[in-house]
Amino acid sequence: MIERVNTQTLNNFTEKAELSKKIETIFLTELIKVLLANTSFSEGKTTSTYMTAVIPQIAEMFSEREIGIGKFLTENPNFLASITKNQKIELKPSSDNQEQNQKPILPKKISLPVSGKITSYFGLRTDPIDGKLRHHNGIDIAVPEGTEIKSIFSGKVVYSGYSETYGNCVIVEHDNGLQTVYAHNSKNLVKKGDRVSPDTVIALSGSTGRTTGPHLHFEVRKDGKPLNPLIALKDSQKATII
Fold it and tell me: pTM for this one?
């Protein structure tokens, strides 16, 4: 009898802790939405492509630290009574593959400028240099220095130069209205005004500019706004099978 009571007490404690965490995650999700509403993250169409998935992950990360909001609310009898009547809060077990599920799946029908592992995706991330949370406007593809970089589509080079952040960088404007950016190159092989095709080697990969090692930083832009390259290329009618 004593053992049964202890087990029941333990179960109640575990369920209450899970409920507290879930409530805190929901509360923080709504709070973060309000806080970001007046920032640059809310401007343009970029918001809808990634923020819906990112905000709950940030909220859950904070709830793991148990800020105390969930505990305060679950210990309030009136609050518990209200959610029992008016709201269902599902407690789902966390998956061991949760971190992998956060990464977008690479579509099959697209080509990339180089062949390599994608080490950083489009969206909010922890900056590898200063550790701050920032939006990453493209994808990073790890390749050895000196790897040939080819233009995704035919187009015209509108920029070939150097900047403190991008290092050696090439920007190509395409007939489909997109611009593609190829950054951190060790050497640019084209100049402004050049016409290029998907077979044209436009640069060699490197680690120039603000970077921690050799890779290609690749962006896709539409009307000056960054798009998720994996989605933008998949949606393009000119995408080719790898």
Answer: 0.56
